Structure formats: C-alpha cells, structure tokens
Amino acid sequence: MTDHIRGVWCATLTPLQPTGAVDNARLAAHARRLFAAGVDGIALFGTTGEGQSFSLEERRAGLDALLAAGISPERVVAGTGCAAITETIELTRHAVRAGCIGALVLPPFFFKGLSDEGVYASYARLIDQVADRRLRLYLYHIPQVTSVPIRHDVVAQLMASYPGAIAGIKDSGGDFEHTRKLLARFPDLAIFVGHEPHLPMALAAGGAGTICGIANLYPRLMRRLHDQSRGGHYRDELKLIEALLAQLERYPLFAAFKALLAELSEDPGWEALREPLVSLDATARRDWIAAVRQTGIVAERDGA
Questions:
Q1: Which of 40, 55, 150, 219 has the fewest CB atoms below 10 angstroms from its CB?
Q2: Considering the chain, what is the average pLDDT of its residues?
Q3: 178 in Cβ contact with 170 (< 8 Å)
Q4: What's the distance, CA 275 to chain centroid?
Q5: How far apart are CA 199 and CA 209, in angstroms?
C-alpha cells in the first residue's frame, strides 16, 4: 500500500435502483468507465455521492459489492465520515480491512463552533480505535458544508501524534489561498483540490491532484486539464470547466450532476437521488441541458 495517491480522482455519484437502494452494478460499471477514460481512482460515498444519506450498512455493503465486482481497492478512497464517531470508526476499520488505499474523513459536523481540541480529539479517537498501521487518512476540509474547518494546527498536531496515519487533505473549501498555505506548510501530505479550476495552480504549487465531481461527467476533460497543466497548455480545458460551473450555479448541484450524467450516458436510471434531495423538474432539466450544450463541451463517449 502506497502512502500517497495522486492525479485525477472522481468523487463518484451514487446510482440508485427504483426501490431507492444503491445500484451496485451500475456503480461498478461507472467506475470501469471512469478508469477507461483516464481517471486514477474514485472516492466513494463522499459529498457528491450523497454519502450522508446512506446508512452505515448501506455504505459498507456498497464498498463490498464494488470490490466483489472486480474494482481494485487500491483505486478506492472510502468516504467514512459520519455524525457518530462510533460509525466513523466502524466504516473506517472496514475500509482499511478491505484494502482501500485511504479513508476520506469529515470532521465532526453536527455541532457547530467546535474547538480545535474537539476536532483533534475526534480524529485521534478514530486512529486509536481503528488501530491499524495500514490506515491512511485523508482529512476532508469542506467548511461551507460542515461549518467545521480543519485548522492547520490540528493537522500538524495529528501528524506529530500519529506519524504516517495522515496521508493527505481534500481541500474543498474553494479558497485557493487556503490551499496554497496548506501546500506550503505540509509538503509531505498529498493535498487535493475539490474545486476543479484550481487544479492547474495546485499542481504548480506541489499539489497531488483533484478529487472532484466533474470527473463523473467529463473524465477525459479532467484528465487533459491535469496532464496539460504540467506544460502550461490548459487554457481551453479550463475555460470549458469554468463555463460549466458558471451555468451550474443556477441549479441544485447533485440533481444537476445526475441529470447531466443521465443525458450523457443515455441512462435515465442516473436521475434518482436519495431523499431529501430531489431530481430536477422537467423545465429545469431542459434548461440545464441546453445551458451545458451552450458551453461548447463535447459529450464524451466510451472509447473516444
């Protein structure tokens, strides 16, 4: 097991069966398509994957089914953060024993105004209770959702207390100045951005790559943005992604992503979301798809 992941990782959407259960077969097929298109790995049951809408058992069973379908655990980072620390421990322990390359873990997110001591204590208990040298944690900083930031001093304290356990950080705050400071202070960690347009700057500053949602829809575009950033020839790809995100601001993110994936894959089964999230109505869906086409992004086809 390597200590760091790098490159383009997809924060995977979670397909549902008509009953509302996770559609494991469709999820495995999606992962295979992503890998064929150049994606390095997937983050399972994160924010984009509606992770908090699924039970501990659903998330555990979903990972097991994915691995049973032949997806390598070394290409899976499991989202294991829960409101209850005991469930976070259970899911993380399961991911480690399954051989996943890492666990992406939110800070405790229900109670607001937490002290740094509380955030540290939560991660420390997780590491202590999992008690497995194979554990590689990717701290998940997304304060606009959790209202609980993971401050730099907490990261430093965890690294000092648990050498080797903290592998990296997913910085989904959308503030590149914060990302830049992380990269400067923690050069030994794999720092990923969640906001796709920040990828070229992050790579230039020593970042590991991206764990992002757009890779569900346009994996080859994200692969090109990553690879061409190395040589500075990424402007066309960046403009397309920025145009897509500008249109996306008018729609609920998860519903818009699933509607677009359904359109691109010609598979209406992707439309469904787990309550409390709901699909776009017919008018909004039509307008959203039309807006995407106006950006000039070309639909990607398998094998293209």
A1: 55
A2: 96
A3: no
A4: 20
A5: 6
Tens digits of residue pLDDT in 144-156:
999 999 999 999 9
Question: In angstroms, rounded to a whole number, what is the distance separating the alpha carbons of residues 209 and 202?
Answer: 7
User: CA 151 from chain center: how many Å?
Assistant: 20
Q: State yes or no: pLDDT of 105 exceeds 80.
A: yes
Q: What is the largest CA-CA distance in the chain?
A: 53
What are the tokens at 163? 């050498």
**Contact indicator for 182, 151 with CB cutoff of 8 Å:** no
The CATH homologous superfamily to which domain 7-231 belongs is Aldolase class I (3.20.20.70)
Task: List CB contacts of 166: < 8 A, sequence separation 6 or more.
Answer: 137, 139, 155, 158, 159, 189
pLDDT at 3 (0 to 100): 60
pLDDT of 144: 96
Is the confidence at residue 2, as pLDDT, over 60?
no
Quote the pTM value.
0.95
Q: Per-residue pLDDT averaged across 106-123, rounded?
A: 96
Q: What contacts 243, CB < 8 A, 6 or more positions away?
A: 295, 296, 297
Q: What per-residue confidence (pLDDT) applies to 109? A: 94
